């Protein structure tokens, strides 16, 4: 049965909806790892969408490492996302949530660097409190979305530039949804992965505490890149 995509009241892009449906198909086992996705023409027919929509969805799947394109051959499954990717988020929202990681890398790597140079002693205490609360929440099996976001917000506030927390707050909804999805997947994974998540935050904190701007920048980039990898690759224990 062919699926027809329609723009919802949220005015989601058709490409984002198609991304979610293809991802769901991969998670459900309709397409195996190493296997080939249908051709662009076939996907157009299956979902009643134009070729530009298909190409944009495939481009996002490639950017997230889920599929790999082989010139003249087609798109092949490279990684199988964890079931939680669609269990904890609507399929149509997945592409939007993953896009937020690109924005966060651009925003938060710089804010971490500035925070390391400009943070006050009081802000360092607030950052440590947020880190401690997040560790307690995660180790108690809770989804630490609020304390995780607070950790990142304190960093933004520590830049001394009001625009950083304002921008982070403006994408608060997408960031928190993405955090909830990522933390939910982590909670159901191995204890080793949980410890890695906590260690990533500790490394960021330590770099800011030591007033190491480049170390803070690299630690934040590593953290966000690892989070994105964890939610797009079911076999990764990054």
Structural class: mainly alpha
Name of the level-1 CATH class of the largest domain: Mainly Alpha
Shape: elongated
CATH level-four homologous superfamily name of the largest domain: GntR ligand-binding domain-like
CA(first)-CA(last) distance:
37 Å
CATH topology grouping of the largest domain: Four Helix Bundle (Hemerythrin (Met), subunit A)
* Total domain count: 2
Task: Enumerate the strands of the largest sheet in spatial order, edge to edge or round the barrel.
Answer: 1-2
The largest β sheet comes out as: 2 strands, antiparallel
Tell me roughly what share of residues is in helical segments: 55-70%
Can you tell me about this structure?
- By secondary structure, the chain is mostly helical.
- Helix 6 (121-139) runs antiparallel to helix 7 (145-157), helix 9 packs across helix 11 and helix 10 packs antiparallel against helix 11 (213-232).
- It has a two-stranded antiparallel sheet with strand order 1-2.
- The protein has eleven helices and two strands.
- The longest helix has 25 residues, at 94-118.
- The model is unreliable at 7-11 (pLDDT under 50).
- The chain folds into two domains: 14-80, Winged helix-like DNA-binding domain superfamily/Winged helix DNA-binding domain (Arc Repressor Mutant, subunit A), CATH 1.10.10; 97-232, Up-down Bundle (Four Helix Bundle (Hemerythrin (Met), subunit A)), CATH 1.20.120.530.
- The chain is 67% helix and 3% strand.
- 41% of the residues are buried.
């Amino acid at each position: 049965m062919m699926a027809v995509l329609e723009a919802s009241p949220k005015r989601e892009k058709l490409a984002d909806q198609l991304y979610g449906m293809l991802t769901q198909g991969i998670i459900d086992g309709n397409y195996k790892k190493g296997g080939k996705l249908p051709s662009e023409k076939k996907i157009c027919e299956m979902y009643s969408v134009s070729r530009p929509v298909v190409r944009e969805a495939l481009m996002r799947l490639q950017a997230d490492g889920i599929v790999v394109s082989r010139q003249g051959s087609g798109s092949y499954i490279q990684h199988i996302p964890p079931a939680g990717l669609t269990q904890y988020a609507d399929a149509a929202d997945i592409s939007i949530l993953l896009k937020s990681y690109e924005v966060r890398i651009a925003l938060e790597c710089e804010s971490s660097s500035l925070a390391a140079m400009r943070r006050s002693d009081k802000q360092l205490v607030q950052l440590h409190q947020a880190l401690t609360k997040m560790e307690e929440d995660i180790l108690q099996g809770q989804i630490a979305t609020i304390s995780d976001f607070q950790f990142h917000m304190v960093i933004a506030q520590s830049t001394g530039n009001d625009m950083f927390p304002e921008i982070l707050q403006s994408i608060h909804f997408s960031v928190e949804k993405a955090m909830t999805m990522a933390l939910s997947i982590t909670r159901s994974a191995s204890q080793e992965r949980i410890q890695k998540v906590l260690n990533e935050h500790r490394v960021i904190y330590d770099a800011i505490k030591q007033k190491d701007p480049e170390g803070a920048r690299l630690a934040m980039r590593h953290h966000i890149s690892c989070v994105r990898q964890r939610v797009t690759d079911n076999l990764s224990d990054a």
